Amino acid sequence: SVIVQPPVYFPFFSAVENHGRELIYNKLIIRDNKWTMDFKGLLSSITEKTKMIIISNPHNPVGRVWSESELKELAGICLENNIIILSDEIHCDLIMPGFTHRPVANISKEIADITVTCIAPSKTFNLAGLSTSSVIIPNPVLRKYFKKKIDDLHIGNGNIFGTEASIAAYSEGHEWVDALMDYIERNVRFVTDYCNDFIPEIVPVKPEGTYMIWLDCKKIMTGTKELKDFFVKNAGVGLNEGSQFGPGGEGFMRMNLATSFQKVEEAMNKIGKAVAAIR
User: Fold this and answer.
1) Chain center to CA of 55
2) Domains of the chain, first to last
3) How far apart are CA 73 and CA 273, in angstroms?
4) What DSSP state is assigned to residue 209?
């Protein structure tokens, strides 16, 4: 079995089930508008069949940048139970001011030996079309197994354009990323302030990382299809409906803020008018 922590990036679910593995939910907990890991729930969900946990760090969609203490507690449980940590850290460059991304594998050599880290320049530098990612596996035994599977499928060669783009992005892109995060933070502040001032029915979960913002819309309506239809048909704005991210996502909507301020402002004005019309 493989554990995931919903609400979370939904392709995790099919990645587990399409490989014939049992999918186990370890739901995140929300307290005071902040999401945290449920370690007691994690312990109770582990059985002798549990081989792996997939985590999102920083977390998509709730926006958490997991602290070192949280990651240490998670890793301690995994070490005790011989569980591999597959850490999706694709948003690791997209960190809000005041927060620091800590790779799981960077905590200790012991933890690194049970960790597989997945990164890519595609989110930060908008290079998804180049189909280039990196999988970091410090443990030589795990790396051997992974390499054999990649070789068997003939998908390990990559492409020269993606490789060169990755090198350029990670080597020369620091100033650009700083400017990007300043811009995204401005969008986050605008959405948060707009909801507080004009749409109190929507409670934003302020992100610590990523370029998404997770919106609690349960005060508008609770039905998942109704909520999605409200945003699309009433407001004319397409967001990701929360239930597709698994248990715990009901009543939430995910908004992508990696766009121009003008588009964000237009979207919020449309949402504001639609909510006002049903008050």
Assistant:
1) 9
2) 2-172 (3.40.640.10), 175-277 (3.90.1150.10)
3) 45
4) B
Burial 100-138 (b: 16+ CB within 10 A, else e): ebbbbbebeeebbbbbbbebbbbbbbebeebebbeeebe
pLDDT at 158 > cutoff 90: no
Which spans in 107-237 are helix H? 109-112, 122-125, 140-153, 160-172, 174-198, 224-229
Q: How many CB atoms within 10 Å of residue 205?
A: 20
> Please, what sign has the CA dihedral across residues 136, 90, 248, 204?
positive
231 with 253: CB under 8 angstroms?
yes
Q: What is the pLDDT of residues 167-224, one digit of tens each?
A: 999 999 999 999 999 999 999 999 999 999 999 999 999 999 999 999 999 999 888 9
Longest dimension (CA), the chain: 60
Mean pLDDT over each residue of the chain, to the nearest integer: 96
**pLDDT band (50, 70, 90) for residue 104:** very high
* Cα dihedral across residues 90, 93, 94, 98: positive or negative: positive
